[in-house]
Specification:
The chain is an alpha/beta fold and 447 residues long. It is built from 18 helices and eight strands. The relative contact order is 0.12. The N terminus is likely disordered.
Length: 447
């Protein structure tokens, strides 16, 4: 899910540090100009120097974020993180003042990143609708030897943000279409807070089911045996849910060839997995922001967000579901890292009765039984070490393999959540390029 940091961030500097810096600044200026600051004449110069130093200290305090040693281009990552954190703080203030919903403020980034559908020498691009849902369609211009491959793509953004027309998504899907000589359908599903689950799922499922009709595949020259669903973050969640639902739908005759899940969000039951603990304040998706995204997917009622933040939202009646997300059984030893599994603390049944979506496999694909996983298509799962969602993807990859599904699990130890979105402009990162190319290469070899 391309996503944004929330209000809390461990910067490594504390207010006492800032006070020490301020006092040091005062003493330094006084030593240089004792008359001025001791009651003499030119106070202005000393005051300006002091203000300048304080402003610099506060700016450093705001920008500085401890960056894991194995991340490349740390200063660039730091400034990217600070930019998104600033937007998060602005959204928080606007929300508290009642000016604009938190997610609506963050959508300003989506609006700023929007590009109109623009064709080039390789790909024809157009905005249209499939089954009354907005999509951006990418049609390759190159001649094909036979029928083409196709990818149905779902963007990330915590089910609340994002658009198929954002520059990074337009680049990703355009490149996929050109590189694979494939038809790409990028879906603009409806978003929270205006729409909650199951609307987002229903939109993407409706588009996929429509596209898989024989007449539609034929219209676009697509091979019915070479269709894939894919998505990043919240879009990865939607892709996994769509793939599961298609297995149950007797009306759908065309089977998916593959699914590609890029750092997917797959369960909201346990929001205190080792990856949530280790990456609580890592770029670009801190834990509390992911909690906010999960709760907003189901409701704007703050009581669910508060319960999720304390990891006490699942009622005892649903305790059997924890077997599907029990990290002590499902994570490899190297990712447990000394963490000790504790039994769940159960919450109110009232929340689950009001908002049952967070217990629904269509919203939480990891909750599907082993029997329901059998028969899923060839799967690619990308996980990032410095990501709160890391363990979701790792556990799903392991469960799919145990169910007999062919899985390629690509674990990037030098990456953080949403990194594939940083491949353009001054924010471009080398690791984003590498992972984008690995994903497209997997599609090229397996679709």
């Amino acid at each position: 899910m391309t996503s944004w940091p929330g209000p809390k961030q461990n910067t490594g500097l504390t207010l006492p540090c800032v006070r020490v810096l301020a006092w040091s600044s005062y003493e330094s200026v006084r030593a240089l100009n004792p008359v001025s600051l001791g009651g003499g004449v030119p106070v202005d110069m000393g005051a300006k120097l002091l203000c300048l130093f304080l402003a610099s200290a506060l700016l450093a305090y705001y920008i500085y974020t401890p960056i894991p040693e194995d991340l490349e281009e740390p200063w660039k990552v730091m400034f990217i993180t600070a930019t998104f954190r600033a937007m998060g703080h602005l959204a928080e203030v606007a929300d508290q003042l009642g000016l604009m919903h938190y997610m609506e403020t963050l959508m300003l980034i989506t609006a700023a990143e929007y590009v109109a559908p623009t064709s080039d020498e390789n790909v024809t691009v157009m905005d249209t609708e499939f089954s009354n849902v907005a999509v951006r369609l990418y049609l390759p211009r190159k001649a094909a030897d036979g029928l083409r491959r196709a990818v149905v793509y779902f963007h990330g953004g915590g089910w609340s943000l994002g658009h198929a027309g954002m520059k990074p998504y337009d680049h990703l899907t355009r490149w996929t279409s050109n590189r694979l000589n494939a038809v790409v359908v990028s879906v603009n599903y409806r978003l929270a807070p205006k729409y909650h689950f199951p609307v987002q799922f229903e939109d993407v499922y409706s588009v996929t089911k429509f596209f898989l009709q024989s007449s539609i595949l034929s219209q676009y020259g697509v091979d019915p045996d070479r269709v894939c669903v894919a998505g990043d973050s919240a879009g990865g969640n939607l892709a996994a849910a769509v793939a599961q639902q298609l297995l149950k739908d007797p009306e759908v005759k065309t089977k998916l060839k593959a699914q590609a899940l890029l750092y997917p969000a797959l369960q909201p039951l346990d929001l205190n997995l080792p990856s949530y603990q280790e990456n609580e304040n890592k770029p670009i998706l801190p834990r509390l922001l992911m909690v906010k995204f999960w709760s907003e997917y189901f409701t704007s009622d703050s009581s669910l967000r508060e319960a999720m933040a304390s990891n006490r939202h699942v009622p005892v009646e649903s305790s059997h579901l924890f077997q599907f997300v029990n990290w002590s059984n499902l994570l490899p030893e190297e990712l447990k890292k000394g963490h000790v599994y504790t039994s769940p603390t159960y919450g109110s049944s009232e929340l689950a009765e009001k908002y049952p979506g967070f217990l629904d496999p269509r919203a939480a694909p990891l909750l599907a039984s082993d029997a329901q996983l059998r028969g899923l298509p060839l799967t690619y799962v990308l996980t990032c070490e410095h990501d709160v969602l890391r363990d979701d993807g790792v556990m799903y990859a392991g469960r799919l393999q145990a169910a007999g599904v062919p899985v390629t699990h690509d674990h990037a130890k030098d990456a953080f959540h949403g990194v594939m979105m940083f491949v353009l402009g001054p924010a471009k990162l080398a690791v984003g390029y590498r992972l984008l190319n690995r994903y497209v290469e997997w599609l090229n070899e397996n679709l």
